[in-house]
Design goal:
Layout lengths: L1 E3 L1 H12 L5 H10 L2 E3 L5 E4 L10 E3 L19 E3 L19 E3 L7 E2 L10 E3 L12 E2 L1 H7 L5 E3 L19 E3 L8 H8 L7 E3 L11 H7 L6 E2 L2 E2 L2 H22 L3 H9 L3 H12 L5 E7 L5 E7 L7 E5 L2 E4 L29
Parallel strand pairs: 1-3, 2-4, 4-5, 5-6, 6-8, 7-9, 8-10, 10-11, 11-12, 12-13
Antiparallel strand pairs: 13-14, 15-16, 17-18
Helix pairs in contact: 5-6, 7-8
Pfam families: LRR_4
Protein name: Protein phosphatase 1 regulatory subunit 42
Keywords: Leucine-rich repeat, Repeat
């Protein structure tokens, strides 16, 4: 078991310089250190090395560290390299307010958290996390809010991710590496990309979505700043052409969605086809006084429409006792009353035959 402490650092630096130092010189040397190279030292625990107060860069990659701790003194730290360790949680980083680049790739992190106070972070590398079955990398909301205001480069490749919703509205993000994940919904992807207003480079190689029809065209048309997609440059002419094409397709889709009001009303009644035609004719094809009502279309909009009054409908047959007598719509001809003639009989006796 190797623990990172001030004594361990003194020992390693003495071996490199091949000379022993006095106690005063040791403290002075540790205080002057700005870059600490402890990568590949089989370290599995971070102890107390607060004597190195002026550290700006720490290299701790390729060790066996399982927890981030004892970094509260490193307020001047700008770069922290801890990839290829066994870290499961981002923690104890609140004091690193000057941290600008954090490298945590090839660990066991499933949630990006503990960064809500790191307001100067411009690069975050969390690629290739060793996740258990069913786990996927996600962002804790408070950390996501902070990162959305400062982060310029993000590497989340190979983390079993299925959506980019967690990083929507990352307004400062310029470079996004999201290779070898499980993105396959092109609409979900384009919706998020359209919110990244500073994005210049996007890498999506190795995702199922790249096989979708017009994948590149959709992404380019939904981003005004993208200049490099999967390693290929994008010209302004190409972007403008695809954006114009997108607008035309959108306008065409709106026209196709417009349904005549007659069909809209008849469909909403859920009637047989033959009956629908009769209803449409009865409502719209007869001139005369109109009755104005409001009809809700299938698009959810209220549209005022005028309909013929009842007195002018074709089903009216006649007036009877000053009342309107409707005629059934399935009868085309009116019923004619049969006239009965009564034959007057003469007052004559009828002779019966003799018995």
């Amino acid at each position: 078991m190797v623990k990172l402490t001030s004594k361990f650092i003194e020992k390693k630096y003495a071996q490199v310089r091949s000379k022993s130092l006095s106690t005063a010189n040791k403290k002075q040397e540790l205080w002057k250190l700005t870059h600490l190279y402890m990568n590949g030292m089989f370290i599995n625990e971070i102890g107390n090395f607060a004597a190195c107060k002026n550290l700006k860069v720490i290299y701790l990659q390729d060790n066996n560290i399982s927890r981030i701790e004892n970094l509260h003194f490193a307020t001047n730290l700008t770069h922290l390299y801890m990839q290829h360790n066994k870290i499961r949680k981002l923690e104890n980083l609140d004091c690193l307010q000057n941290l600008r680049k954090l490298y945590m790739g090839y660990n066991c992190i499933s949630v990006i958290e503990g960064l809500e106070n790191i307001e100067n972070l411009i690069e975050l590398h969390v690629e290739n996390q060793f996740l258990t079955l069913g786990e996927t990398l996600c962002f804790e909301p408070r950390s996501a809010v902070t990162l959305s205001k400062c982060l310029k480069r993000l590497n989340i490749s190979n983390n079993k991710m299925t959506t980019l919703n967690d990083i929507a509205n990352f307004n400062e993000l310029e470079i996004l590496e999201a290779k070898n994940n499980l993105f396959e919904d092109i609409e979900d992807l384009t919706q998020t990309i359209s919110t990244l207003i500073s994005l210049r480079e996007l890498y999506m190689n190795g995702n199922p979505v790249v096989q979708k029809h017009r994948y590149k065209e959709s992404l380019i048309a939904n981003s005004n700043t993208l200049v490099n997609l999967d390693g290929k440059s994008i010209s302004d002419i190409c972007r403008k052409f695809l954006q114009i094409f997108k607008e035309k397709r959108f306008n065409q889709s709106i026209k196709k969605m417009t349904v005549p009001l007659t069909d809209d009303i008849a469909n909403s009644l859920n009637l047989p086809p033959a009956f629908k035609k009769s209803i449409c004719r009865a409502i719209f094809q007869h001139p005369g006084p109109k009755l104005s009502i409001t009809v809700t279309s299938a698009m959810g909009e209220l549209q005022p429409q005028s309909f013929p009054s009842w007195k002018m409908a074709a089903g009216i047959n006649s007036l009877k006792d000053n009342h309107i007598t409707p005629r059934p719509f399935w009868r085309d001809t009116s019923n004619k009353k049969e006239t009965h003639r009564v034959n007057s009989m003469n007052n004559k006796s009828i002779m019966l035959p003799p018995i």
